[in-house]
Amino acid sequence: MEDPEAAGAARPPGLSSLLPPREFLRSRKGQLLLAESVLSFIIFICYIASLAASFMMAPLLEFLLALFLFFAYASKLNEKFKGIHWPLADFLRCVTAAIIYFAISIAAVSKYSDGASKAAGVFGFAATIVFAVDFYITFNDLVTFLKQGSSDSPEGHKTEDEDSDSDSD
């Protein structure tokens, strides 16, 4: 019997259809989003178990945002919904996450003495690095995206409109 993925057949319905494609998991963006989700979840659990429980909301929100973007990119929602500037939204998410994780990690490590707070701080510094790498890569994608948008000059749109007017005559 042949492996359905090797034959290029569609996945059978069920729980396996919810899993992202292997190509996306092997991509740099997929691995970064997966690492961000896992680190944010670990940090969230550490903050729940620590004396610094007041910091738990930031990792929870970052976990949910990273998980949403992971499945949005995996299911190619970014190609279906062109009205959203995906690279810009992803860039802003990564920049704010890196800054927030850096700040709360410093506070957790310096202000609280329990082990869970220290662990959350250490994982927070690791998350800061992962988010910084992601926003650097996303910045390069954003520059490319913006250059593509600026290459569509108003003259190009004007000639298309003139062409459609001459076709209707």
From TrEMBL:
Keywords: Membrane, Transmembrane, Transmembrane helix
Cell location: Membrane
Entries under InterPro entries matching the protein: Marvel, MARVEL-CKLF_proteins
Span of domain MARVEL: 24-143
The organism's place on the tree of life at top rank: Eukaryota
Membrane spanning residue stretches: 32-50, 56-74, 86-108, 120-139
Segments for region (Disordered): 149-169
Membrane topology, record value: Multi-pass membrane protein
Protein name: CKLF3 protein
Organism this protein belongs to: Thryothorus ludovicianus
